[in-house]
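FAQ

Q: What does a record look like?
A: Structure on top, sequence underneath. For example:
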């Protein structure tokens, strides 16, 4: 790797262009523990290490870009959620955030359940030995084939998302001689304070059945009549990257309100309530996420209080965190290819990946941080934009960040908190190959999802 310093970049200290950033940190070598995986540190040479392995040797052995995942951190977070909710509640890891067979095994060993939302996720879960009764099957348009496989394999619950699906699942279960445990997903009409595309409980959207106008109550009425279904509860998921618990409070209040209506009308007290996932993590130093035990305490108190007021037995609670478990446990390791200072603006730092391995910045205006990780540097901070190698000007990985002004081609940079929704939403845009997921633990690194090859691409191209 070349270590030649770039000729001094533009000075940004005097006039900073418009952007969402605070002043440069006092020391760019310091790593904010909030955004990095738990075992991350810098060694005596200034090289970042994780799980006891340094990033220079990770890049040499596995290439870049690569997602580097800290197994101890993943297990620790999974365990923290499990312990926080105790034996009276269930934690379903949301597989959409990131799923691989290694992850399924860790979840199984740590006593968590798993939420899947496609045939592919179900196949991954089952092939890695997750007991089917610990799997929840989600989705707003499950195919008949997916429903059949879910019922046949004996999944613990299917979350019903529409009137048609209530009938569809009931028929399939009956034709297989089964009675399928189901929940009904409702939209509670909460405006979650998050990006429009990841808010899911307002009424004008595709998920769930609205509580408003009595639609959810009607869905319950129909589900209770069908022999193929055992209705075990109501499900609500209000959105993602949420810090404020008030949305959950309103959601719980309204879901419990429905449980009361059901009790009054049918004489049935549904035994379960699922409050979904969506708890936020720190992408930058500005984010202050809550600990699982605080979240568990808050949610349990809300549901208990609402049920007492409604004179209902408190149902068993379940939650579905995805990002909050896997998000902070991984970072993406890139090699810098070009450094392009634009006078009076900022310096564009091009890395060897981009929107194909992290679409979140382009899709949601997501904010990330970034650090030089193959060495320490005492150079002045420069305002940088980390961009990818794709043919789009919107191919931005980190919109505004400070990096040392001696950053040069060949340096390694890492973007923390990319464990969730990066590999799982990765694409082959521009026929770029999707990066591997390398797991580190106690001084060892192993590949759990390998890098794509050109043969992989050509194998699908059968024309
Ligand atoms: N449960 C349900 C029903 C969900 O739809 C989701 C996320 C979760 C749980 C997990 O949410 P989490 O705890 O991971 O925030 N791709 C977007 C977010 C969309 C997530 C969709 N559903 C992102 O990159 O932020």
């Amino acid at each position: 790797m070349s270590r030649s310093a770039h000729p001094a970049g533009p000075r940004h200290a005097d006039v900073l262009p418009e952007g969402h950033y605070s002043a440069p940190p006092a020391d760019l070598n310091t790593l904010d523990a909030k955004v990095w995986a738990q075992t991350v540190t810098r060694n005596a040479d200034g090289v970042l290490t994780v799980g006891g392995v340094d990033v220079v040797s990770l890049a040499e052995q596995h290439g870049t870009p690569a997602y580097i995942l800290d197994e101890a951190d993943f297990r620790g977070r999974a365990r923290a959620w499990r312990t926080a909710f105790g034996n009276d509640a269930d934690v379903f890891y949301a597989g959409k955030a990131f799923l691989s067979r290694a992850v399924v095994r860790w979840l199984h060993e740590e006593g968590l359940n798993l939420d899947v939302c496609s045939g592919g996720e179900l196949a991954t879960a089952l092939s890695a030995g997750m007991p089917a009764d610990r799997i929840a099957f989600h989705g707003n348009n499950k195919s008949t084939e997916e429903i059949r496989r879910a019922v046949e394999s004996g999944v613990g619950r299917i979350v019903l998302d529409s009137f048609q699906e209530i009938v569809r699942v009931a028929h399939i279960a009956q034709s297989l001689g089964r009675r399928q445990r189901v929940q009904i997903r409702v939209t509670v009409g909460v405006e979650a304070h998050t990006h429009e595309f990841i808010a899911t409980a307002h009424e004008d959207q595709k998920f769930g059945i609205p509580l408003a106008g009595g639609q959810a109550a009607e869905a319950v009425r129909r589900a209770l009549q069908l022999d193929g279904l055992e209705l075990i509860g109501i499900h609500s998921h209000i959105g993602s990257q949420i810090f404020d618990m008030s949305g959950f409070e309103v959601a719980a209040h309204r879901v419990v309100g429905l449980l009361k209506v059901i009790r009054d009308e049918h004489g049935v007290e549904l035994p379960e309530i699922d409050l979904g996932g969506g708890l936020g993590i720190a992408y930058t130093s500005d984010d202050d996420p809550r600990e699982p035990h605080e979240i568990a305490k808050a949610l349990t108190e809300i549901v208990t209080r609402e049920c007492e007021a409604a004179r209902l037995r408190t149902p068993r609670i379940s939650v579905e965190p995805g990002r909050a478990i896997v998000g902070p446990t991984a970072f993406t390791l890139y090699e810098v290819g070009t450094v392009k200072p634009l006078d009076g603006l900022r310096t564009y730092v091009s890395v060897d990946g981009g929107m194909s391995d992290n679409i979140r910045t382009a899709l949601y205006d997501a904010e990330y941080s970034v650090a030089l990780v193959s060495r320490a540097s005492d150079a002045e901070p420069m305002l940088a934009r980390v961009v990818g190698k794709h043919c789009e000007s919107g191919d931005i990985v980190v919109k505004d960040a400070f990096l040392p002004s001696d950053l040069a081609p060949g340096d390694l940079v890492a973007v923390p908190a990319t464990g969730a929704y990066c590999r799982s939403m990765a694409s082959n845009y521009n026929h770029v190959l999707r990066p591997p997921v390398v797991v580190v633990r106690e001084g060892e690194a192993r590949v759990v999802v390998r890098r794509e090859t050109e043969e992989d691409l050509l194998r699908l191209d059968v024309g």
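Q: Is there anything notable about this one?
A: Confidence is low (pLDDT under 50) at residues 1-14.
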